[in-house]
């Protein structure tokens, strides 16, 4: 049976406990990384972004433009740093552009 929380818990604390108990952290990270990519890259890059997938600590980004893929490949470490700063924790360690 699930542990009953006292009446003075915040909604955030309850949600964090639900995420932790049900092992939903990886799925939440996937959603957070997709949103961070969308916000940080802007409309120009998002137009050519087909898919963003987080597997473990590697971010796979499928792009529809070879020129854009080549341009972004020069700044992979900056992309990792920007996404991790946006999320406030180290989630992404590597970026693979396809």
Key terms for this structure?
alpha+beta; 98 residues; single chain
Describe the protein in words.
The protein is an alpha+beta fold and 98 residues long. It has one domain (25-97): 2-Layer Sandwich (GMP Synthetase, Chain A, domain 3). The protein is 56% helix and 17% strand. The protein has helices spanning 11-21, 25-48, 66-73, 76-87, and strands spanning 49-55, 58-63, 94-97. It has a three-stranded mixed beta sheet. A hairpin with a 2-residue loop joins strand 1 (49-55) and strand 2 (58-63). It is elongated, with a radius of gyration of 17 Å. The relative contact order is 0.14. The model has no long low-confidence stretch (mean pLDDT 88). It holds the Pfam family DciA. This is RNA-binding protein.
């Amino acid at each position: 049976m699930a542990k009953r929380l006292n009446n003075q818990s915040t909604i955030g604390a309850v949600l964090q406990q639900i995420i932790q108990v049900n092992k939903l952290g990886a799925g939440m990270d996937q959603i957070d990384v997709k949103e961070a990519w969308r916000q940080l890259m802007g409309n120009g890059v998002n137009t050519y972004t087909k898919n963003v997938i987080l597997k473990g600590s590697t971010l796979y980004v499928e792009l529809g433009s070879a020129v854009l893929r080549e341009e972004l490949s020069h700044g992979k470490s900056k992309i990792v740093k920007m996404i991790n700063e946006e999320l406030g924790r180290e989630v992404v360690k590597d970026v693979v552009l396809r």
